[in-house]
């Protein structure tokens, strides 16, 4: 339904206005010494992975409100990701959570994905829930459990996830652990960290040579007193202990209030240990809201660090970009379209920063002009640039509009009756 012809027809509706907008912006940016064509080509290179767990309505521990036409299995989730990719030109890979989206036949899944023009990004292991038939419980931890048997079971699960990922063509595993405690005295802080480190070391030693392992920190939830991989410091200690293949994953919602996340990003870059991102947005905690919906300036400042680093480090700087959101109210496909566009916009703004002038202002301690250099880029309406990038990639000027105009959700509601999809709650 959302083929290139439908997208082209929809683009036609506002193409003339778009041409005016980009022409105007081109003239404005030329005065700032910026070549629009070059920026558009850079935006076209941006890609972000879509999480397999975000395509159905999420939920909280208080309830879940399913929407019409939710995907009933992983194949239907791939179809939804393909729609997002077609409309944005920037979502060519899926990040699988196992066992939530454990494929019955990984090879068949690879073929289906290939036919849809998709591939697979990092695989995610799950030792934060017990699975039916599992021998030992993760109630008191997994990779950091006091019982060696539980740790071994959790290591074996990660091994399995890597095996699945190999068949899929993934090149990384992301490990987020719920290990922690709810009350003072419950766990020995140092011992539990050492046990996690030792378990991760075993996983890392067996990792295929061309794979990366990302450790993802989170300050609290579900553990409310202490979390073993609590902050970026703990995550960095792990990545450094594990060696070359390990690095840190920054989920934007996994920081205590008021943390300067863009500076965390800069520190990890300095350490050579910025592995990747889980993009989302948050007001209070791990809220998993639409990327860029609450703190768009922060998102821009993060991309400013990323662009700055890639100017210096070139091709070697390749963080993995993934979205990690939970869609409780919005149509998941629409929310993901919004998120991809928000990321394209943030990246575009960061590309407009005059880095030579910024460096000069920093060297001469010109506070006002340094800040203005950033806000000049941030306050530029970059929407025509990202629309043009999508257009050139065969995508939509306005992805959500196309999705609505073709009535795609209604079509899915009819095609996918009797949804059996039951995502996990309150993650
Ligand atoms: C966690 C963390 C992980 C994600 C789970 C579902 O809070 O963000 O990345 O896999 O939620
Ligand atoms: Mn995450
Ligand atoms: Mn999270």
Measured by DSSP, the beta-strand proportion falls in 5-15%
> How are helices and strands ordered from N to C?
HHEHEEHEEHEEHEEHEHEHEHHHHHH
- The portion of residues assigned to helices is 40-55%
Q: Structural class, please? A: alpha/beta
Strand order of the largest sheet: 3-5-6-8-10-11-12
Number of strands: 12
Low-confidence stretches: none
User: If you compute it from the alpha carbons, what radius of gyration comes out, rounded to the nearest whole angstrom?
Assistant: 22 Å
Provide a count of the helices: 15
Shape: globular
| Mean pLDDT over the residues | 96
Sheet having the most strands: 7 strands, parallel
Can you offer a commentary on this structure?
The protein has helices at 4-31, 36-44, 74-88, 106-115, 148-168, 189-205, 232-242, 261-270, 296-313, 332-351, 355-363, 367-378, 383-392, 399-405, 408-415; strands spanning 50-51, 93-95, 97-98, 119-120, 123-125, 172-176, 180-181, 212-216, 226-227, 246-251, 274-279, 320-323. With 427 residues, the protein is α/β, with parallel strands linked by helices. The longest helix is centred in the N-terminal third of the chain and has 28 residues, at 4-31. The chain is globular, with a radius of gyration of 22 Å. The chain starts with a helix and ends in a 12-residue tail after the last helix. Bound molecules: beta-L-rhamnopyranose and manganese (II) ion (MN) (2 copies). The site of beta-L-rhamnopyranose has 10 residues, from loops.
SSE layout and pairings?
Layout: H1 4-31, H2 36-44, E1 50-51, H3 74-88, E2 93-95, E3 97-98, H4 106-115, E4 119-120, E5 123-125, H5 148-168, E6 172-176, E7 180-181, H6 189-205, E8 212-216, E9 226-227, H7 232-242, E10 246-251, H8 261-270, E11 274-279, H9 296-313, E12 320-323, H10 332-351, H11 355-363, H12 367-378, H13 383-392, H14 399-405, H15 408-415
Parallel strand pairs: 1-2, 2-4, 3-5, 5-6, 6-8, 8-10, 10-11, 11-12
Antiparallel strand pairs: 7-9
């Amino acid at each position: 339904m959302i083929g290139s012809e439908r997208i082209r027809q929809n683009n036609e509706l506002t193409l003339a206005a778009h041409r005016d907008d980009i022409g105007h912006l081109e003239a404005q940016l030329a005065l700032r010494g910026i070549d629009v064509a070059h920026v558009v080509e850079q935006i076209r290179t941006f890609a972000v992975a879509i999480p397999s767990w975000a395509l159905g309505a999420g939920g909280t521990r208080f309830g879940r409100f399913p929407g019409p036409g939710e995907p009933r299995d992983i194949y239907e989730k791939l179809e939804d990701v393909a729609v997002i990719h077609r409309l944005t030109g920037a979502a060519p890979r899926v990040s699988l959570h196992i066992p939530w989206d454990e494929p019955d036949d990984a090879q068949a899944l690879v073929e289906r994905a290939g036919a849809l023009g998709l591939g697979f990004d990092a695989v995610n292991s799950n030792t934060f829930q017990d699975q039916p038939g599992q021998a030992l419980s993760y109630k008191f931890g997994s990779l950091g459990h006091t019982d060696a048997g539980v740790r071994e079971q959790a290591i074996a699960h990660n091994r399995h996830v890597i095996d699945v990922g190999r068949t899929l063509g993934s090149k990384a595993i992301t490990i987020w652990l719920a290990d922690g405690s709810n009350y003072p005295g419950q766990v020995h802080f140092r011992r539990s960290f050492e046990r996690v480190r030792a378990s991760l070391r075993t996983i890392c030693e067996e990792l295929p040579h061309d794979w990366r392992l990302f450790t993802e920190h989170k300050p609290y939830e579900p553990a409310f007193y202490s979390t073993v991989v609590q902050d970026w410091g703990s995550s960095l200690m792990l990545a450094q202990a594990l060696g070359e293949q390990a690095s840190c994953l920054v989920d934007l919602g996994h920081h205590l209030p008021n943390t300067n996340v863009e500076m965390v990003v800069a520190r990890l870059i300095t350490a050579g240990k910025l592995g990747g991102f889980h993009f989302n947005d948050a007001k209070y905690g791990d809220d998993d809201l639409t990327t860029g919906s609450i703190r768009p300036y922060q998102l821009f400042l993060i991309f400013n660090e990323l662009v700055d680093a890639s100017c210096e480090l070139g091709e070697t700087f390749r963080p993995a970009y993934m979205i990690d959101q939970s869609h409780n109210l919005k149509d998941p496909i629409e929310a993901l379209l919004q998120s991809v566009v928000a990321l394209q916009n943030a990246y575009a703004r960061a590309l407009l920063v005059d880095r030579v002038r910024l460096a000069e202002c920093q060297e001469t301690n010109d506070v006002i002009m340094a800040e203005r250099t950033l806000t000049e880029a941030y306050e530029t309406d970059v929407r025509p640039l990202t629309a043009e990038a999508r257009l050139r990639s065969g995508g939509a000027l306005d992805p959500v509009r196309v999705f609505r105009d073709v009535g795609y959700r209604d079509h899915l509601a009819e095609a996918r009756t009797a949804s059996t999809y039951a995502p996990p709650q309150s993650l």
